[in-house]
């Protein structure tokens, strides 16, 4: 799942970035200024698709393992730690203008992907130790006694 998300994220984002000028025309209402803003914002956001795919795959794994508190933590961090404070900082202390919106998405998706990857490594390590390494082997009987 992780590999599929990474490959598809990279492929689709690459195609979108390649044809960004064409795609922006669908939304710019004929305004050259708005067209430029769309391109500026989305260029950053599209670069964050791969780490967002990592985040999505890890969240799916955590849901499957019943680790809903960790998924809550990751989703909370993505918005209230990695997105809102970064947006506030970029709006108040940089001159990126509208591009700061896309930069925020890139930064928050990147940090969310990194955080999800770290949590994934820890959870898989614990899962392997607990269920696979023999300390409490998780065995499913093939037939009823």
SSE blueprint and pairings:
Layout: H1 2-18, H2 20-24, H3 32-47, H4 49-64, H5 68-80, H6 84-93, H7 99-132
Helix pairs in contact: 1-3, 1-4, 3-7, 4-7, 5-7, 6-7
Description:
The chain has 145 residues and is mainly alpha-helical. The protein has one domain (2-132). It contains 7 helices and no strands. It has helices at residues 2-18, 20-24, 32-47, 49-64, 68-80, 84-93, 99-132. α1 packs antiparallel against α3, α3 runs parallel beside α7 (99-132) and α4 packs parallel to α7 (99-132). It is elongated, with a radius of gyration of 20 Å. The model has no long low-confidence stretch (mean pLDDT 88).
Summed up:
With 145 residues, the chain is mostly helical. The chain has 7 helices and no strands. The protein has one domain.
Rg from C-alpha positions? 20 Å
Average pLDDT across residues?
88
Task: Give the terminus-to-terminus CA distance.
Answer: 36 Å
Number of strands: 0
Low-confidence stretches: none
Query: How is the biggest beta sheet arranged?
Result: none
Keywords:
145 residues; mainly alpha; 77% helix; elongated
């Amino acid at each position: 799942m992780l590999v599929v998300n990474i490959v598809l994220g990279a492929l689709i984002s690459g195609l979108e970035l390649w044809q960004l000028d064409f795609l922006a025309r669908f939304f710019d209402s004929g305004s050259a200024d708005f067209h430029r803003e769309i391109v500026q914002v989305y260029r950053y956001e599209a670069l964050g698709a791969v780490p967002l795919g990592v985040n999505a795959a890890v969240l799916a794994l955590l849901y499957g393992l019943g680790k809903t508190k960790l998924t809550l933590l990751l989703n909370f961090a993505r918005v209230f730690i990695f997105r809102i404070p970064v947006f506030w900082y970029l709006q108040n202390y940089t001159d990126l203008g509208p591009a700061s919106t896309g930069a925020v998405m890139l930064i928050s998706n990147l940090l969310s992907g990194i955080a999800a990857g770290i949590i994934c490594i820890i959870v898989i390590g614990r899962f392997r130790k607990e269920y696979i390494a023999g300390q409490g082997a998780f065995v499913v009987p093939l037939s009823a006694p």
